From TrEMBL:
Protein name: hydroxymethylpyrimidine kinase
GO cellular component assignments: cytosol
SUPFAM superfamilies noted in UniProt: Ribokinase-like (SSF53613)
Occurrences of domain Pyridoxamine kinase/Phosphomethylpyrimidine kinase (ranges): 17-264
EC nos: 2.7.1.49
Species per Swiss-Prot/TrEMBL record: Flavobacterium supellecticarium
Length: 287
């Protein structure tokens, strides 16, 4: 039978989460739930549960590079999500390969601080991320803890979010989604920036639950998923935030683990989407 169709593919480049809510597990749950097809590259093996991270085992950079090259030569992604990249060597190999594919949108969640508050990245890696990965990313999605790391300033209100966003945009970003979920307010505010300033402000009611493990991973994976489905950036961000809000709400009363529990990614799973197979046979070719 002639193969006429393919699926919207999202490649996630991220760390492992044995407790299932974040990292590659959270990403693949999200991508599957949106009707897309997930592929993955493992960057690290954190030893963690819902209570926090106990250790991090690094995957050798040459193995990460081989994983990435092997996937890209066979299955062309329609969008890429990057999560945990915690060493300078990993930044270098990922950037070197992805810069060969400038037509594929990239959503980068600069994972620096876990939901539990555990710091996941060495300070020396931050400059490398800013100089090599920020320019490649279509969108970066830091939370307020990560924005504080990037700016050196604590962020305690929406006015400070605007100042922090302006500072981060000066670091070479194309688009920035600054997430305000950590503010002590009943309303969640997030700001989407381009190089001219804030272009969209998103607000929603905050759900009071500690089942937030992997919420940042889920949001960035969902944005990549909606981009793969053909949405423009602002609509992809809006739809992804609606998806995460529902996933938190539907999992808020569920006990998984003793700490920060996961979202309910499959509250309303979509059938996997079929689309016409492109003429280039869905094989990634460096530009």
């Amino acid at each position: 039978m002639k193969k006429k169709y393919t699926y919207p593919v999202v490649l996630t480049i991220a760390g492992f989460d044995g407790s299932g809510g974040a990292g590659i597990q959270g990403d693949t749950n999200t991508i599957n739930a949106l009707g897309c097809y997930p592929t993955s590259v493992l960057t690290a093996l954190p030893v963690q549960n819902t209570g926090g991270v106990k250790a991090i085992h690094s995957i050798p950079p040459e193995i990460v590079a081989l994983q990435l090259q092997t996937i890209l030569e066979d299955i062309r992604p329609d969008a890429i999500k990057i999560g945990m990249v915690h060493t300078q060597e990993l930044v270098a190999v990922i950037a070197a390969i992805l810069q060969q594919y400038p037509d594929i949108p990239v959503v980068f969640d600069p994972v620096m601080v876990a939901t539990s508050g555990h710091r996941l990245i060495e300070p020396a890696t931050i400059d490398k991320i800013v100089s090599e990965l920020f320019p490649l990313a279509t969108l970066i999605t830091p939370n307020l803890d990560e924005a504080a790391v990037l700016t050196g300033n604590a962020i305690t209100n929406v006015a400070e979010m605007y100042r922090a966003g302006a500072m981060i945009m000066q670091k070479g970003c194309r688009h920035l989604l600054l997430k305000g979920g950590h503010l002590p307010t009943n309303e969640l505010t997030s700001l989407l920036w381009d190089r001219q300033g804030v272009i969209v402000t998103y607000t929603s009611e905050k759900i009071m639950t500690n089942n937030m493990h992997g919420s940042g991973c889920t949001l960035s994976a969902a944005i990549a998923g909606y981009l793969a489905l053909g949405e423009n950036l602002s609509d992809a961000v809006s739809l992804a935030q609606q998806y995460v809000h529902r996933a938190i709400a539907e999992g808020a009363d569920v006990a998984i683990g003793k700490g920060n529990g996961p979202l309910n990614h499959f509250f309303e799973p979509q059938q996997r989407v079929k689309k016409e197979k492109p003429r280039y046979n869905n094989e990634a070719s460096p530009k």
